[in-house]
Amino acid sequence: MPYGGNELTYASPNIEDYTLDHIRYVHLDKGQRGHLVPTQRLGALELLHMVLIQLDIPSLTAFRRVNRRATSIVDLVPQYKAITTHAPVTLWGIFTIGTGRWISCQDLYEKLSTAECESCGDFGGYLYLITCCRVCFLCFTVKADYLPLRQADATRKFGLDRSHLENLPTMKTVPGYYSPREIKLRDRLTLVDYRAARRTGIAIHGSESKMNEHSVHIQAKKLEKYNLRRSKHTAGAANPNPRRPRTEDEFDGYSSNPKRFVAIVRAPFLNPGATSLEWGFHCSACRSHHYNRPLHWRRKFTKDSLKAHIEECGEIVDGKHVRQQLI
Q1: Which domain, by its residues, includes 226?
Q2: Domain of life, per the record (predicted)?
Q3: 327 domain-assigned
Q4: pTM higher than 0.70, yes or no?
Q5: What per-residue confidence (pLDDT) applies to 35?
């Protein structure tokens, strides 16, 4: 049986992850104005395409809407055409959560044309749309880099103030159900990219240790003020009790934390050498809910990476990995 065949692999577990792309979305405008072949030169078309793909997503879309000629020119950009044809939900997600100013058409196309998770190298079946990263399930549900923070938490954790957040990648959540536990988010929250906020904090304070010291110092001062106000508060007074400042991170919950799913969409690998999209597949021998690498049941593979997995863990016999005994 060839790699990728039904006996060795299966497409997906019988579970829904409820990422952003499960939210119902309207279809993108794919050029309802109609196409016009450009009748005059705007410089070499290839050069113009090279310029256009470097634009951030909102700027490219704004140019496309200028007139029918601009629509035709953008729709002829190979990278843009590949995205709208094979992964339109990625554009919808970027527009919906408002992260397009930090992502160019070229950035998005390159991530769609890359198979590996940026953190671990496994097949990454998802995109993290705040900063456009290719990720796998095991990384985006565990690593801090893919847990966007409330603005108040970002300022507290990394010793920032509101002015520092103005130019950092942020998003607006879409109300809906998220994570395999289908936890509902009701409000549109503004969340900040963890990695960008952390880098900014380190840059401002000079080092990670100094950043942490500053954060602890500020939290101690806020807690001291809170205790002072609370001690002066009279029982039964009209004013409510002062609110205790948060000094610890929210409970994470990892794969059940809806904030880990609000910027995630499933995304195929646009393999230039393949005739169809690659969504990855799971190893049938790891299906028995193993929870540790290299046998974790959530890992996904391509044909090439499955070969490496079998070399590492053993051939699949009767639905299990079997290592050959050396004689």
Answers
A1: 149-169+191-232+242-254
A2: Eukaryota
A3: no
A4: yes
A5: 46
